Amino acid sequence: SRQTTNMSVPEPQETAYLYFEEYLTPTFRIGSRLKKLDAEFKSRFQRVQMIETADFGKTLLIDSKTQSALLDEHIYHETLVHAAMIAHPNPKKVYIGGGGELATAREVLRHPGVEKVVMVDIDDQVVDICEKLMPEWNKGVRDDKRLEVYYEDAKAFLEKSEDTFDVIIMDICDPIEAGPGIALYTKEFYEFALTKLSPGGTFVTQSGPCSLFNVNDCFCVINRTLSSVFGEKNVYGYSVNIPSFGSDWGFNLAVKVDEDKRVDWANEAPEKINDLVEKRIKGGIEGMRHYDGITHRSMFAQTRDIRKAIAAETRMITKDNPVYMF
Description:
The protein has helices at 73-87, 103-108, 124-133, 135-138, 154-160, 187-195, 219-230, 270-280, 293-300, 304-312; strands spanning 19-25, 28-42, 47-53, 57-62, 65-69, 93-98, 116-120, 147-150, 165-171, 197-209, 235-242, 247-255. It is α/β, with parallel strands linked by helices. Helix 6 (187-195) packs across helix 7 and helix 8 (270-280) packs across helix 9.
C-alpha cells in the first residue's frame, strides 16, 4: 500500500515581481518592489497615486513623483519645519502653502507657543486620501483647534489675506511644467511673501533635489531668486538625504531681519539648537526622530561642490521666465 508522510511540500519560489521605478534624470532611475497599489486617480489638478513598496512602505506619488514615504517622511517634515520655526524668536502665526499629507502641520503644531496655523492646499482630494490612507502622517492633527485648512490656490489665498505671519512654509510640489506650483517659486511671489512676513519672520521652501548630479535642476536657482529678494546674507540653503527620493533634498530658508539682528543659523552651535528644541518643541529632543543640534549643523554644511554650484548660478525664476525641473 502507498505510504503517507508528514513532509510538507515547499512553496514554489517567486521569480516574478512588479516594480515601481522613478526617473530622477532622463538616464537615471531608482526602484523598489511594488507590494500594493492602494489608490490611483486624477484630480482636477494632478495625477495621484498611493502605493506601498518593499523598501519604503506607504508612498504618496503626485504626477509620478514621490512626495512622501512612511520610512522617511519624518526626515523631510522635521527638516522643512523646525529650522524655520526655531529661527524665529517666538512664532505665533504660521502659514503653510501645500502640505496635503498634514504632516507639515503636525510638526508645526508641536510648538506650543503657536496660536494659529493656516494651511492652504489647492487639492482637497489629495488631503482626503492622505487622511484616509496615511493616518501615520496626520493622526490627531484635525483635532487641534489652532489649525485652519482651506482648499484654494496658496498664492491667491495669501494675496487676499489681511494677515501677516511669523513663519511661512512652502510645502509644495516641485516646479514641473505640468504641475500647479510653478508660480510659488517666482521672484514676484517671493517679493509678495516678504510683505506678508512680520518683522523677524522666516520663510522656507522645499527646493528640489540637491545631489551633485541634479543640484542645478532647481535648488540653486531657487536660492538665487530668494537671495535677490531677501538679500544674499539672509538666505540659507540646506539639504538632507531622503532615501525614498533617491537623492539629497534641498531647502532654502530666508529671514526678514535687520543687519544688526542677523543670526548665522548655518553655524549655530549644536548645544544652542538642542536647548531651543527642549524649550520650544513638545517632546523635546527625545520626541525628535531626526532633527537636533548636530543634525542641524550637518544640514547647513554643504559640500564644496554644492557651494560652488550655488555661487555659479546666474538664472532667476520669474513669471515670464520660469525654470522647470525634470
